[in-house]
Amino acid sequence: MNLKELYQEIILDHGKNPRNLKKIENFNNDATGHNPLCGDKVHIYLNINNNNKVEDISFEGSGCAISMASASIMTDLVKGKDETEVKEIISDFLDMIKEKPELSSKNINEEDKTKLMCLSGVKKYPMRVKCATLSWHTLTSAINNSKDEINTEKMDT
Amino acid sequence: MNLKELYQEIILDHGKNPRNLKKIENFNNDATGHNPLCGDKVHIYLNINNNNKVEDISFEGSGCAISMASASIMTDLVKGKDETEVKEIISDFLDMIKEKPELSSKNINEEDKTKLMCLSGVKKYPMRVKCATLSWHTLTSAINNSKDEINTEKMDT
Amino acid sequence: MNIDNIKKEFPIFNSKIHNNDLVYLDSANSSQKPLVVINRIYDFYTKEFSNVGRSVHYLAVAATNLYEKTRSSVQKYINAKDKNEIVFTKGATEAINLVANTFGQKYLKEGDEILITELEHHSNYVPWHFLRKEKGIKIKFAEVNNDGEITIESIEKKITNKTKLIAFTHLSNVTGAILPVKEITELAHSKKIPVLVDGCQSAPHLKLDMQDLDCDFYAISCHKMYGPTGLGILYAKKKWLEDLPPYQGGGGMIGQVKKDGISYGDLPNKYEAGTMATAQVIAFDESIKFLEKIGIHNIMQHEKQLMDYGEEILRKNNSVKLVGNPKKKGAVLSFTIDGIHPHDIATILDEDGVAIRAGHHCCQILHDKLGLTSTARASLGIYNTTDDIDKLNLSINKCKKIFNLK
Amino acid sequence: MNIDNIKKEFPIFNSKIHNNDLVYLDSANSSQKPLVVINRIYDFYTKEFSNVGRSVHYLAVAATNLYEKTRSSVQKYINAKDKNEIVFTKGATEAINLVANTFGQKYLKEGDEILITELEHHSNYVPWHFLRKEKGIKIKFAEVNNDGEITIESIEKKITNKTKLIAFTHLSNVTGAILPVKEITELAHSKKIPVLVDGCQSAPHLKLDMQDLDCDFYAISCHKMYGPTGLGILYAKKKWLEDLPPYQGGGGMIGQVKKDGISYGDLPNKYEAGTMATAQVIAFDESIKFLEKIGIHNIMQHEKQLMDYGEEILRKNNSVKLVGNPKKKGAVLSFTIDGIHPHDIATILDEDGVAIRAGHHCCQILHDKLGLTSTARASLGIYNTTDDIDKLNLSINKCKKIFNLK
Ligand SMILES: Cc1ncc(COP(=O)(O)O)c(C=O)c1O
Ligand SMILES: Cc1ncc(COP(=O)(O)O)c(C=O)c1O
Q1: Contact C360 A64 (CB under 8 A)
Q2: Which regions of chain D are under pLDDT 70?
Q3: Is B1 a residue whose pLDDT tops 60?
């Protein structure tokens, strides 16, 4: 049954107890995202060090289990990775959510892949895809430090 | 067949050779009417003498056979009548076109009644009723010397 | 027609959703259509179609008469004084934009105030916001109380001598609060302020009597009233329609057209530019007939029972919180569940065929005030039954189970 | 699908008019609808109805996908670059009003000029007239020549350094003249002037290629294109839709809504405020499919043959005068008969089931120029045949007989 795939334990856990849900003090990049259809919002804070590495990352926001879990897993995952790796991971994830059956990035270990694949249940729920991708698009703009607000309507998800 | 009733000889004759189609010199009242749906226009000129009698009347305009015949017969008919009589005739005619089977005015002789009844063929053509009544409504405003243009859309025909 | 088995008049309920019967609780968004309305559209297109008002041939004349017949039916149904006070629009949104635009053009200048409420749908705020940007007017918000109501006092408090119009909803699409339209209008008129009522949510559920309410403008969405999509109604007092400038320009709304000037047509043509939604207007006559056959009193009674039942059931359900607690309430049950986001609720309910809406319901101002980004909303139509409410409740319990709530 | 017996796809032709077969020659006013379109509306309402875009339940998601599918079909059919360049409106009239209003707001000031033509429908004049009154702009008219054409020279002559936009019809609904859109657009763009094309009459009859025409705006009426009433399309280049302000305000077109400000949604939402004509949009996909199945080249060929035949027959008929004689002409045969007013012609033809239109066809400026108050117009659709033309001619002869003409 599809619902079980969508609301797996990992999603419920991250949705309920999201990791990195706070505003870090020493962020040097940030961006906000907004889904006008449902009102969901996310604010991503990044600390990128001199070696272009994600030293720290956190987020604030409210949203459904899917979007909170997605932001939570994402922030856990990219911590410690460098910018190019992160960008590659983002595009791998978005490709997977859009069409590809699997993740193929070398920059994600197996355990994290399993976690991310838990989000693939949304593929059967087209209206919910935006929930899963909002934080990822917002991360892209945080990295690019583009101060524009990300509006999921505009996005190619 | 309905068409024969609509386009009787009298109508065709008056439509083709409308009586009183000119601008009289010495008019003291006048009014214009316009049917925005088809673009038909009529301008009525009245000379009312000191005894409130229609000394002379004419019209200018363009329109279908029905509207030209109606204006032609009407102008012939009211010439020489006094204002109250004319108003009574107008309302009798409009009542007939709207719903009453016959004309009942004492101020119209039998020959003229026969002529007017030729216009009753439009009853079966609701979209053409306006053609038959435009000049009559315009005559009302000429008598009242109200300078407003009569727009058949507004009228209760 | 008996309201207790009215569902069978709506063919949609023969459809299966994920193999379940459809439990349609999204009527505040748009109602389902009875077969008579659908058939009328079909018959009109297959046997009678023509554009209205412009040609003198048989089909055109017949269509024009049918079109105007709906106008008369609407006039009667809402008890307007004159049939030319009924203007067909593409929706309630257009109806409100029409008023904001034309009233704004003629009567508003910098510093003037429009008074709306915190309950308003974006459709009754954004058009006024345009005037704020263009003309520098101010928008004041009457405040919603803790029960999700707007009282006459909350309106009165915000009226100043700059208030040029008061615009508010008759029935909130989130809290279900029914506003005292007649009293607010009386108050407004005593200060010579005209009143616009957003009747989107009230029109399908309440008795409509324009002459009694005495408001100046009333906006209706036909698709929420068991009618076709793409159609709305603006009721406006004749004096306003005569007084205000036209809104859209085009065919049919003109008198004479010259290179250096234009005169406009008479009512209602002046406000119906271009080819209108002919088939939809003609079919809407069937919606009105359908509602008349059931009878508005039966509708109100039926829906009141449902509302009472629904409120009782949901109140009893642990973790479920109703949004708003207005004394007079209609047709809308908005709620939240602690620990489950409304989007997740809607998705899980949908799996059982229970269709509700989750989101801000085009009322972000109200949601901000309530400190919520989103709510779940079950909204009722004449076809709903207590059985639907029971199914809603069962599915809510399923949500709770999935999310490990009690 | 074979165009020669396409009539049978249109159920209206089973109807009798005054006991005669319907000879429908009023397609320029509105076209008849093929059964596939009517059935789609029926099926959507009976089995699939929901409002689009707002809810996450099954029916809403399905409806939203169907709605967006039509947008993609339209994009493909008119060869637009991007699907978000397609905005659904209530008609071509609204589409033009949308552009006039938003372009006017942002770019026009006193003394600026809009260049239109003497051929224009009121829908492409009145919206500009509003700006003349509000902003003091000027409206210039490119002159029609004796053949009822607008040449590129007549446009060029009226362009000044104050010309801010050129708006003209693709195909005249009175003379049938087809304007050189691509050349006019090239000329205009060479002077940095944007171009709006009123495509109402061309859309059902000509190949549409927005990228080739390169115009900035193109307005279409779906009800003239074998689609439902109450629906139109504005094509606009993305840069304009991004650049111009919104038109109507309401649900669905917003981003964030706060008490002190509003951000707007992305394309195409920004221009689709309120509940749209959902069923009509979804059904219009069938109109497009229907047209694609027949093939635009077959349509053009068929209609060209009919036009040639019709012109020949009418020219041969004593007392009949064709209105206009453009070298490139489509789908419209306007005429007068010396001694019979067009209204009388239309009434007499109607008795034989021959439906034409009489009047100024919302082109008073052109009629003034022609020194006529009114013309008779037979306009063609894909379902017409040479037999229809013959019947038209026979009925014209009947008119002449009634009026004792030779
Ligand atoms: C050339 C032209 N432009 C504009 C329009 C207006 O289209 P609509 O009435 O569908 O808005 C029409 C049709 O009446 C037309 O023929
Ligand atoms: C209270 C209220 N006002 C206005 C609207 C807008 O109506 P429409 O979308 O039909 O234009 C709605 C419906 O969405 C509504 O619920």
Answers
A1: no
A2: 54
A3: no
CA dihedral D272, D276, D282, D284 (to 10 degrees): -80
Cis, peptide link before residue D268, omega less than 30° from 0? yes
CA C183 to chain centre: 20
* Domain boundaries of chain C, sorted by first residue: 3-26+296-402, 38-292
**What digits encode the pLDDT tens for the residues B93-151?**
999 998 899 999 999 999 999 999 999 999 888 778 989 999 999 999 999 876 555 54
**Ligand 1: lining residues by beta carbon, under 6 Å:** C 250-251, 274-275; D 28, 91-93, 121, 123-124, 169, 173, 198, 200-201, 221, 232, 362
Chain D residues with beta carbon closer than 8 angstroms to that of C132: none
Q: Tell me what the mean pLDDT of segment C90-105 comes to.
A: 98
Each residue's pLDDT tens digit, C333-343: 999 999 999 99
Decide if pLDDT at A1 tops 70. Answer: no
Calpha distance A110→C149 (Å, rounded)? 54
Yes or no, beta carbons of C265 and B127 under 8 Å apart: no
pLDDT above 90 covers what percent of chain A? Answer: 73
Q: With a cut of 90, say whether residue B40 has pLDDT above it.
A: no
Answer yes or no: do B125 and D347 touch at CB < 8 A.
yes
The residue extents of the domains of chain B are 3-143
Tell me, yes or no, if A7 comes closer than 8 A to chain C by beta carbon.
yes
pTM for this predicted structure? 0.95
User: Class of D38-292 per CATH?
Assistant: alpha beta
CB C364, CB C126: distance < 8 Å: no
The mean pLDDT of C94-107, rounded to a whole number, is 98
Confidence of residue B154 (pLDDT cuts 50, 70, 90): very low
In CATH, what number does A3-143 get?
A: 3.90.1010.10
- What CATH number does the domain located at D3-26+296-402 have? 3.90.1150.10
pLDDT the model gives residue B156: 36
Interface test with C, best of A2, A11, A41, A64 (most C CBs within 10 A): A64
Whether A and D touch (3+ CB pairs < 8 Å), yes or no: yes
**Complex confidence, ipTM:** 0.93
Min Cα–Cα distance to chain A from D37, Å: 27
DSSP of chain B: -HHHHHT-HHHHHHHHS-TTBS--TT-SEEEEEEETTTTEEEEEEEEE-TTSBEEEEEEEEE--HHHHHHHHHHHHHHTT-BHHHHHHHHHHHHHHHHT-SS---TTS-HHHHHHHHGGGGGGG-GGGHHHHHHHHHHHHHHHTT--SPEEGGGS--
Nearest to C251 among D60, D121, D261 (CB): D121
The whole-angstrom separation of Cα D276 and Cα D94 is 13
CA distance B20 to D91: 45
D255 close to ligand 2 (CB < 6 Angstrom): no
Asked if residue B95 lies in contact with residue B56, where contact means CB atoms within 8 angstroms, the answer is: no
Chains that touch C (3 or more CB pairs under 8 A): A, B, D
Mean local confidence (pLDDT), C155-184? 98
Closest Cβ–Cβ partner in D60, D65, D265 for A153: D265
